[in-house]
Design goal:
Its main location: cytoplasm. Residues 71-283 form the Translation elongation factor EFTs/EF1B dimerisation domain. It comes from Lutispora saccharofermentans. With 303 residues, this protein is an alpha+beta fold. It has helices spanning 4-14, 18-27, 32-41, 44-48, 81-84, 87-102, 108-113, 121-132, 174-190, 202-218, 223-241, 256-267, 292-301; strands at residues 57-64, 70-78, 115-116, 119-120, 137-145, 149-156, 161-168, 247-248, 251-255, 272-280. The chain is built from 13 helices and ten strands. A hairpin with a 2-residue loop joins strand 3 and strand 4 (119-120). The longest helix has 19 residues, at 223-241.
């Protein structure tokens, strides 16, 4: 029986994951040195040494099944843009999206435990880290399933931005799929936050009104017209963040709502946008900015 304190010690000495440490100790009958060797042989200890590095680059990948009924979008991070162009890394990212769809997964934990080329995804990731020499992490994924309608994706900039869109419709044909691609591209380009104005939370509107009021006062506007000005500016802002109110990027003369109405008439069935998601690789991750001069000086002092 391997006790928790031994697992903790091995983890501190190698940086490997808790479950990997436990497995190594079980395999080596609790022998610490043999367990370290076991982890090194598996590439897990080598990978762990890189775990502290910030992985803010990477790729967004998508996969849609043949029926356009289930789709997934996945973000996998690495440290440098150079590695993001590595074919092994690209294949791994795209495979993760396919696994999510094929196995209908709903959590990162399930994905980590899933089979990939005869090993767990977590083990395959560690092997890839050891092979390429950079820290990597499967950051997030989303999966959409459409009973009535279709799921469509769009990838921009070679995986810098990816989107997933679910359209509801009783008729699914090539016209609907092409529309879905256009909407997915719209989401990538214009980064809407909500589908329609009715989806915008009251708290968001209240906060924005407060900000706009302060802006108007700071601009020295007449208090008598401030409220009217706030409403005008808020209405303009909502048009920018609500997908249906945005001008269609491929035709600046019509809104997305008008595009949906036109396509609904064309196929003879109502079309609506059920949901969408947009991933931009590395968004929200604080990148570390190393000072090269300070790094060189630090190394000189340590000699």
């Amino acid at each position: 029986m391997v006790d928790a304190s031994t697992v903790k010690e091995l983890r501190e000495r190698t940086g490997a994951g808790m479950m990997d440490c436990k497995k190594a100790l079980v395999q080596t009958d609790g022998d610490m040195e043999k367990a370290i060797e076991f982890l090194r042989e598996k590439g897990l200890a080598a990978a762990a040494k890189k775990a502290g590095r910030i992985a803010a680059e990477g790729l967004v990948g998508t996969y849609i099944n043949d029926e356009n009924k289930i789709g997934a979008i996945v973000e996998v991070n690495c440290e440098t843009d150079f590695v993001a162009k590595n074919q092994d890394f690209i294949d791994f990212v795209n495979s993760m999206a396919k696994i999510v769809v094929d196995k209908e997964l709903s959590s990162l934990e399930q994905l980590s435990e899933s089979d990939y080329n005869g090993m767990k995804v977590s083990e395959a990731l560690s092997s890839l880290i050891a092979k390429i020499g950079e820290n990597m992490a499967i950051r997030r994924f989303e999966k959409f399933s459409a009973d009535n309608g279709a799921v469509v994706s769009y990838i921009h900039g070679g995986g810098r931005i990816g989107t997933l869109v679910q359209l509801d419709s009783s008729i699914v044909n090539d016209t609907l799929i092409e529309l879905g691609k256009d909407i997915a591209m719209q989401v990538a380009a214009m980064n809407p936050l909500y589908i329609s104005e009715s989806d915008v939370p009251g708290d968001y509107i209240g906060k924005e009104k407060e900000i706009l009021k302060v802006q108007a006062i700071n601009e020295g506007k007449n208090p008598a017209v401030v409220e009217k000005m706030i409403e005008g500016r808020l209405k303009k802002q909502l048009k920018e963040i609500c997908l249906l109110d945005q001008l269609f990027v491929k035709d600046g003369e019509k809104t997305v709502a008008k595009l949906l109405a036109d396509k609904s008439k064309e196929i003879g069935a109502d079309i609506s946008i059920s949901r969408f998601v947009r991933f931009e690789k590395g968004e929200g991750i604080q990148k570390r900015e190393d000072n090269f001069a300070e790094e060189v000086m630090s190394q000189m002092k340590n000699k």
